[in-house]
Amino acid sequence: MRTVELLPDEATEARVRRVWARLAAAGLPSMAGHRHPTNRPHLTLATASDLPWDARTGLAEALSVLPVPLRLEHTVRFAGRTSVLAWRVVPDAALSALQRQVWELVGGGDNPLLEPDEWVPHLTLGRTRSKGDPWPAELLPVELSEPWEGAFTAARSYDTGTRSVERLTRASATPPGSGVPVHRDRRDSSSGGTVNG
């Protein structure tokens, strides 16, 4: 399987990795425990059995809009064969349109949770097969109650068969005058909380 993923700016990645480390230090399931070199914060837009060459021109064009703003706000939980704790990415019109375009370019993919009307954008913080509540709210890092703004600056594809990545774009700084913030720490405790999803 191949993915199409967006990668955040350096400051946002560092912040997510700090949360991973604090979850692990509290004895909670965390992506910090996933030691493979390809493990990094990312937002999955679509998956497919392969990335056909005839879709790559379209992907390159679609992804040329990067950087696009990102906003992290609240946590979201997913339950299934595994439990997942994630930092919710608040989708704006540009991000939603990009996800739909990429999903269509790879042929609709093979994951119903990535269908545009079902997609819940997020950055994974921890994953476990443990039952009950693996992440008690009182043990979660304070950063998760503080909104954060940054940008998605690059894209990659992960190959689950070879466990390798292919860069789909080059990392880019925010162009002067673009209006896209690279990062902003917005300490607004009124918008903290946990969303179960």
What do you see in this structure?
This protein has 197 residues and is α+β, with helices and mostly antiparallel strands. It has 3 helices and 9 strands. Strands 1, 2, 3, 4, 5, 6, 7, 8 and 9 form a 9-stranded mixed sheet that branches. α2 runs antiparallel to α3 (93-105). The two termini are 25 Å apart. Residues 172-197 have low confidence and may be disordered.
Topology:
Elements: E1 2-8, H1 10-25, E2 43-48, H2 53-63, E3 68-78, E4 83-89, H3 93-105, E5 122-128, E6 148-159, E7 164-167, E8 183-185, E9 194-196
Parallel strand pairs: 3-9
Antiparallel strand pairs: 1-2, 1-6, 3-4, 3-6, 4-5, 6-7, 6-8
Helix pairs in contact: 2-3
Short description:
By secondary structure, this protein is α+β, with helices and mostly antiparallel strands. Helices cover 20% and strands 30% of the residues. Strands 1, 2, 3, 4, 5, 6, 7, 8 and 9 form a 9-stranded mixed sheet that branches.
Residue share in helix: 10-25%
**Count of extended strands:** 9
Low-confidence spans: pLDDT under 50, at least 5 residues? 172-197
**Biggest sheet details:** 9 strands, mixed
Structural class: alpha+beta
**Average pLDDT number:** 86
Shape: globular
* N/C terminus separation: 25 Å
H/E series, N to C? EHEHEEHEEEEE
Computed over alpha carbons, the radius of gyration is 16 Å
Number of helices: 3
User: What share of the residues does DSSP label as strand, in percent?
Assistant: 25-35%
